[in-house]
Amino acid sequence: MSNRCLYAAMFSEFLSKEPLAVLGTLHNNYHGDALTTTDEAWMGEIELMQQVLEPWREEQGQIIFEYDIPRLGKRIDVVLLLRGMIFCLEFKVGKKEEFQAGIEQVMDYALDLKNFHLFSHDKKIVPILIPTKYKEYTTVFQPSVYNDDIYNPMITGEEHLQELISKVLEHAGAKREDGGIDNWLISPYAPTPTIIEAARTLYENHSVEDITRHEADKVSTDTTINYILQVIQQSKDRQQKSICFVTGVPGAGKTLVGLDVAIKQTYKDGELDKENGAVYLSGNGPLVAVLIEALARDNQKKCSERGERKNMSDSRREVSEFIQIIHRYRDNMLAKIKNPVENGELEIDPEKAVKLAATGYGEVEHVAIFDEAQRSWTHKRIADYLKRGGTYGNKLKVPNFPMSEAEFLIWSLDQREDWAVIICLVGGGQEINTGEAGITEWIKALNNRFKHWNVFISNKLTDPEYAEGRVNDLLRENSNVTFSDSLHLAVSLRSFRAETLSTFIHSLLSFAPDASSLYQDVKQKKYPIMLTRDMDKARKWLRKMARGTQQTGVLVTKVAARFKPLAVNILPQGDENAVHWFLEDKTDIRSSNYLEDAATEIQVQGLELDYACVLWDADMRCEEGSWAYYKFNGKNKWNPENNNESRKYMLNAYRVLLTRARQGIVICVPYGNSNKTPEGFPEDPTRLPEFYNGTYEYLKSLGLEEL
Fold first, then answer.
1. Could you tell me which of 401, 415, 407 has the C-alpha nearest to residue 341?
2. pTM above 0.85, yes or no
3. Which of 50, 195, 289, 469 sits at 20 to 30 Å (Cα–Cα) from 258?
């Protein structure tokens, strides 16, 4: 018997058994003491199903009792596999009315099978709620409007269950020869991992298989990874230089793709392959720190379990070979150039670097993966930074630096004498810091200085959120461009219940007319987006929603300023703080789960929580149907922010925060302080209710459910 259920049998076998014998099997496989009420419920279900299934006795159908769903921590009462279809039955024994909670419960089961259960993803799934004494039954059958082969939930009492199943089979056109579903009970079950879970599995197994859900063919991480690996192999075979631009919706797995390519190139058949290795680079310090620490801890734990001695510093150093902060990679190349720079041209100083036959003056890796490539710095920002001396690595001062960061990174790989590949992972509308250049600088560099590089580019890079929609214009004169839809990740892996989440957030932030309907889509897929004005209610909701090791946290923008009255502290800068916030468990007050320290968009971009509270401050306010932007002066006043670039970063900050949660979010827009002093002046003029009311009313108008 599979440990995923308490009882499973073909229809003919089940129908020939005495009910008490089936009950005995359920008892034997049940871990714990079954209550009398449980016994009575099971016995009622067994006797009912033996009557209901009689018409299909001779068919290749299968009945499964108490099927375990690990992700939800629950069991489906009964699953029927009949004529190629899957029926999920949830019994409410002795009940005579329908319950919304029951409807949602059985729908959750169906969604969970569709999303995570490999042998269910291309099958029709029928959720049925059965309050046994209910006198009516569903007569209108509607497949889900989301085109995912899940029927809308149905309801019936026990007396009409057989009739309902028969009519659904007829409606679906299911034929006897469709039979059962082979190996359904032992199907791979692949919940969506967090990026940390995914990285751990990748690092341990050097394989991406089975760590992401494969929902039909819509999840394209495998396709994208294979396409990139082909470009790498082709570049190696032809001794060419190539660059790939990978786009994706928030949470679609861009970082996962980058890590997987880095590991596949660095480890071949489980062995380190430094000859053809890759390095994963990110300017996102918290992300790199959290990933390195998570992998190092895991690596040390596994070594300890095997009886191997290994200290944490060795584990961190090993992981750091292929995951690095981009500034240190950059500084390593800067140490090789003639300094000061003359005539606006970078040159290698032979006194500072050794030229190798294949590597030239480049770094050892053939492949460099730049995560969040849209956040590379403008020429002005990197030139100013290097003029005064950086804050990372060797703190090298380079006056008159002539390139943008993107151009310099391509230049660095171009120093190789043989072949090289750059993979740029690009998020749309996610530039969140002043001086981040977006994707335009990469394309300009390729057009102006690196025309010999082959360019492989997602066909979605022409969308408005990338380079203001000017990508086609920028690439018009470049003859080495190949567009491919294999380089776009269209499905969010982060929020496994609502792939339309990122689309909804985009519409919400742009005041698009479809925002309300998109919210209903998200809501129907059981991804909750709650609204409140009370942080205590928000915290209570988060604690109620999170089970087991699920992670919660509070998020605010870095421009937010008036959060202390709500008992919220901003997580201090420093990568070590982000490591503790993300990785410590619920027994450690530094953990995000304590809901005391709030992280900003800088600290959470690229990472994720299960449930999050986004605390909406007075920095971005809805005023007369558009966003108004403000920055606090640090003392007593919010001043309007009129710089368009800063406004874009402030908007993108909320885009990042609102797409961090995998399973649900609560948005808290405070009341503000309406109290007056005895003299009749506002008690707190920095938190007037009118700073918040417009935003709250706008979100409420979209239909968001209030706590």
1. 401
2. no
3. 469
